[in-house]
Amino acid sequence: MITEKIHRLDRERVLAQERARIARDMHDDIGASLTRISLLSEVAKLLPSTGSESAPVTRISDIARDAVDKMGELVWATNPKFDTLDNLTAYLREYSARFLADARRKGRLEFPQNVPAFPVGSIFRRNVVMILKEGLNNAAKHSGATEVGVSLDLHPGRLELTITDNGCGFDETDPRRFGNGLNNLRERIQALKGTFSVASQPGAGTRLAFRLPLPPEKA
User: Fold this and answer.
1) Where are the domains of the chain?
2) According to CATH, what is the number of the domain 83-213?
3) Quick check: pTM over 0.85?
Protein backbone atom coordinates (compact mmCIF):
# COMPACT_ATOMS: atom_id res chain seq x y z
CA MET A 1 0.00 0.00 0.00
CA ILE A 2 2.76 2.44 0.93
CA THR A 3 4.65 1.69 -2.29
CA GLU A 4 1.52 2.22 -4.41
CA LYS A 5 0.87 5.54 -2.67
CA ILE A 6 4.44 6.67 -3.32
CA HIS A 7 4.13 5.77 -7.02
CA ARG A 8 0.81 7.61 -7.25
CA LEU A 9 2.28 10.71 -5.65
CA ASP A 10 5.26 10.54 -8.00
CA ARG A 11 2.95 10.34 -11.03
CA GLU A 12 0.91 13.29 -9.78
CA ARG A 13 4.09 15.30 -9.19
CA VAL A 14 5.38 14.57 -12.70
CA LEU A 15 1.99 15.45 -14.20
CA ALA A 16 1.88 18.72 -12.27
CA GLN A 17 5.38 19.60 -13.47
CA GLU A 18 4.40 18.84 -17.08
CA ARG A 19 1.28 20.98 -16.81
CA ALA A 20 3.35 23.84 -15.42
CA ARG A 21 5.84 23.51 -18.27
CA ILE A 22 3.08 23.59 -20.90
CA ALA A 23 1.56 26.65 -19.27
CA ARG A 24 4.94 28.45 -19.29
CA ASP A 25 5.65 27.53 -22.92
CA MET A 26 2.21 28.67 -24.06
CA HIS A 27 2.56 31.96 -22.23
CA ASP A 28 6.11 32.67 -23.41
CA ASP A 29 5.89 31.53 -27.04
CA ILE A 30 2.29 31.57 -28.26
CA GLY A 31 1.29 34.45 -26.03
CA ALA A 32 4.13 36.68 -27.18
CA SER A 33 3.37 36.01 -30.86
CA LEU A 34 -0.35 36.67 -30.51
CA THR A 35 0.26 39.84 -28.53
CA ARG A 36 2.58 41.10 -31.26
CA ILE A 37 -0.05 40.37 -33.93
CA SER A 38 -2.63 42.27 -31.91
CA LEU A 39 -0.34 45.29 -31.45
CA LEU A 40 0.66 45.37 -35.12
CA SER A 41 -2.99 45.19 -36.13
CA GLU A 42 -3.81 48.15 -33.90
CA VAL A 43 -1.03 50.15 -35.56
CA ALA A 44 -2.23 49.11 -39.03
CA LYS A 45 -5.68 50.49 -38.29
CA LEU A 46 -4.15 53.95 -37.81
CA LEU A 47 -2.43 53.91 -41.21
CA PRO A 48 -4.11 55.37 -44.32
CA SER A 49 -6.11 52.68 -46.05
CA THR A 50 -9.03 52.19 -48.37
CA GLY A 51 -12.44 51.24 -47.09
CA SER A 52 -12.01 47.70 -48.40
CA GLU A 53 -8.87 47.23 -46.32
CA SER A 54 -10.09 48.62 -43.00
CA ALA A 55 -12.65 45.90 -42.29
CA PRO A 56 -10.21 42.96 -42.67
CA VAL A 57 -7.60 44.72 -40.54
CA THR A 58 -10.15 45.36 -37.82
CA ARG A 59 -11.22 41.73 -37.99
CA ILE A 60 -7.61 40.55 -37.66
CA SER A 61 -7.20 42.72 -34.58
CA ASP A 62 -10.39 41.35 -33.01
CA ILE A 63 -9.42 37.74 -33.73
CA ALA A 64 -5.92 38.22 -32.31
CA ARG A 65 -7.27 39.88 -29.15
CA ASP A 66 -9.78 37.07 -28.70
CA ALA A 67 -7.03 34.48 -29.19
CA VAL A 68 -4.89 36.17 -26.54
CA ASP A 69 -7.81 36.08 -24.10
CA LYS A 70 -8.54 32.42 -24.80
CA MET A 71 -4.89 31.52 -24.50
CA GLY A 72 -4.82 33.22 -21.10
CA GLU A 73 -7.83 31.19 -20.00
CA LEU A 74 -6.19 27.96 -21.14
CA VAL A 75 -2.96 28.81 -19.34
CA TRP A 76 -4.92 29.50 -16.16
CA ALA A 77 -6.87 26.23 -16.50
CA THR A 78 -3.69 24.23 -17.12
CA ASN A 79 -1.35 25.70 -14.51
CA PRO A 80 -1.44 23.56 -11.31
CA LYS A 81 -0.58 26.52 -9.07
CA PHE A 82 -4.18 27.72 -9.56
CA ASP A 83 -5.70 24.41 -8.40
CA THR A 84 -7.37 25.97 -5.35
CA LEU A 85 -10.88 27.15 -4.56
CA ASP A 86 -9.79 30.71 -3.74
CA ASN A 87 -8.12 31.06 -7.15
CA LEU A 88 -11.20 29.67 -8.87
CA THR A 89 -13.48 32.08 -7.01
CA ALA A 90 -11.29 35.06 -7.89
CA TYR A 91 -11.23 34.04 -11.56
CA LEU A 92 -15.02 33.63 -11.72
CA ARG A 93 -15.53 37.05 -10.16
CA GLU A 94 -13.04 38.73 -12.50
CA TYR A 95 -14.43 37.02 -15.58
CA SER A 96 -18.03 37.93 -14.70
CA ALA A 97 -17.15 41.59 -14.16
CA ARG A 98 -15.16 41.83 -17.39
CA PHE A 99 -17.76 39.99 -19.47
CA LEU A 100 -20.68 42.12 -18.28
CA ALA A 101 -18.70 45.34 -18.74
CA ASP A 102 -17.82 44.37 -22.32
CA ALA A 103 -21.44 43.37 -22.97
CA ARG A 104 -22.63 46.68 -21.48
CA ARG A 105 -24.88 44.98 -18.98
CA LYS A 106 -25.36 46.11 -15.41
CA GLY A 107 -23.87 43.47 -13.15
CA ARG A 108 -24.74 42.38 -9.62
CA LEU A 109 -21.92 40.23 -8.31
CA GLU A 110 -22.09 38.45 -4.96
CA PHE A 111 -18.99 36.46 -4.07
CA PRO A 112 -17.61 35.40 -0.69
CA GLN A 113 -14.71 37.48 0.62
CA ASN A 114 -12.84 34.79 2.53
CA VAL A 115 -12.36 31.61 0.54
CA PRO A 116 -10.14 28.73 1.72
CA ALA A 117 -7.29 27.44 -0.43
CA PHE A 118 -9.14 24.14 -0.78
CA PRO A 119 -7.54 21.97 -3.50
CA VAL A 120 -9.55 21.57 -6.71
CA GLY A 121 -8.23 20.09 -9.95
CA SER A 122 -7.98 21.61 -13.41
CA ILE A 123 -10.91 19.56 -14.78
CA PHE A 124 -13.20 20.87 -12.06
CA ARG A 125 -12.03 24.45 -12.55
CA ARG A 126 -12.37 24.30 -16.32
CA ASN A 127 -15.91 22.90 -16.20
CA VAL A 128 -17.07 25.48 -13.65
CA VAL A 129 -15.68 28.30 -15.80
CA MET A 130 -17.38 26.92 -18.92
CA ILE A 131 -20.68 26.65 -17.03
CA LEU A 132 -20.39 30.31 -16.05
CA LYS A 133 -19.51 31.33 -19.62
CA GLU A 134 -22.47 29.44 -21.10
CA GLY A 135 -24.87 31.03 -18.62
CA LEU A 136 -23.54 34.55 -19.17
CA ASN A 137 -23.55 34.15 -22.95
CA ASN A 138 -27.19 33.15 -22.89
CA ALA A 139 -28.14 36.06 -20.63
CA ALA A 140 -26.25 38.64 -22.69
CA LYS A 141 -26.98 37.44 -26.22
CA HIS A 142 -30.45 35.90 -26.13
CA SER A 143 -32.43 37.24 -23.18
CA GLY A 144 -32.38 40.95 -23.99
CA ALA A 145 -31.50 41.57 -20.33
CA THR A 146 -30.18 44.90 -19.10
CA GLU A 147 -29.08 43.51 -15.74
CA VAL A 148 -27.39 40.21 -14.91
CA GLY A 149 -26.60 38.83 -11.48
CA VAL A 150 -23.94 36.27 -10.60
CA SER A 151 -23.65 34.86 -7.10
CA LEU A 152 -21.39 32.20 -5.62
CA ASP A 153 -22.10 30.50 -2.31
CA LEU A 154 -19.83 28.01 -0.58
CA HIS A 155 -21.16 25.28 1.67
CA PRO A 156 -19.46 22.28 3.29
CA GLY A 157 -18.62 19.98 0.41
CA ARG A 158 -20.32 21.95 -2.35
CA LEU A 159 -20.35 25.10 -4.45
CA GLU A 160 -23.52 26.89 -5.58
CA LEU A 161 -23.43 29.18 -8.61
CA THR A 162 -26.49 31.23 -9.57
CA ILE A 163 -26.99 33.37 -12.68
CA THR A 164 -30.08 35.59 -12.99
CA ASP A 165 -31.24 38.14 -15.53
CA ASN A 166 -34.14 40.54 -16.05
CA GLY A 167 -34.59 39.57 -19.69
CA CYS A 168 -37.50 38.31 -21.74
CA GLY A 169 -37.59 34.88 -20.11
CA PHE A 170 -39.01 31.85 -21.89
CA ASP A 171 -41.35 28.93 -21.63
CA GLU A 172 -39.54 26.24 -19.62
CA THR A 173 -41.44 23.51 -21.46
CA ASP A 174 -39.84 24.56 -24.77
CA PRO A 175 -36.43 22.81 -24.95
CA ARG A 176 -35.49 24.75 -28.08
CA ARG A 177 -34.96 27.89 -26.03
CA PHE A 178 -31.43 26.88 -25.03
CA GLY A 179 -30.63 24.63 -27.97
CA ASN A 180 -27.15 23.12 -27.74
CA GLY A 181 -26.36 25.38 -24.80
CA LEU A 182 -28.64 23.41 -22.50
CA ASN A 183 -27.12 20.11 -23.61
CA ASN A 184 -23.61 21.47 -23.02
CA LEU A 185 -24.59 22.57 -19.53
CA ARG A 186 -26.09 19.17 -18.75
CA GLU A 187 -22.95 17.37 -19.87
CA ARG A 188 -20.69 19.54 -17.76
CA ILE A 189 -22.96 19.26 -14.72
CA GLN A 190 -23.06 15.48 -15.10
CA ALA A 191 -19.27 15.36 -15.43
CA LEU A 192 -19.02 17.12 -12.06
CA LYS A 193 -21.81 14.97 -10.55
CA GLY A 194 -23.85 18.07 -9.81
CA THR A 195 -27.37 19.31 -10.39
CA PHE A 196 -28.93 22.44 -11.81
CA SER A 197 -32.33 24.04 -12.15
CA VAL A 198 -33.86 26.55 -14.54
CA ALA A 199 -36.63 28.94 -13.50
CA SER A 200 -38.11 31.25 -16.12
CA GLN A 201 -41.35 32.69 -17.45
CA PRO A 202 -42.00 34.81 -20.53
CA GLY A 203 -41.35 38.43 -19.61
CA ALA A 204 -40.07 37.54 -16.11
CA GLY A 205 -36.37 36.85 -16.60
CA THR A 206 -34.40 33.68 -15.99
CA ARG A 207 -32.64 32.07 -13.04
CA LEU A 208 -30.03 29.32 -13.47
CA ALA A 209 -28.88 27.58 -10.29
CA PHE A 210 -26.00 25.09 -10.19
CA ARG A 211 -25.06 22.84 -7.27
CA LEU A 212 -21.63 21.27 -7.65
CA PRO A 213 -19.97 18.94 -5.13
CA LEU A 214 -16.38 19.94 -4.37
CA PRO A 215 -13.75 17.33 -5.22
CA PRO A 216 -12.70 15.23 -2.21
CA GLU A 217 -9.33 16.04 -0.71
CA LYS A 218 -6.63 13.54 -1.67
CA ALA A 219 -5.24 11.43 1.11
Assistant:
1) 2-79, 83-213
2) 3.30.565.10
3) no
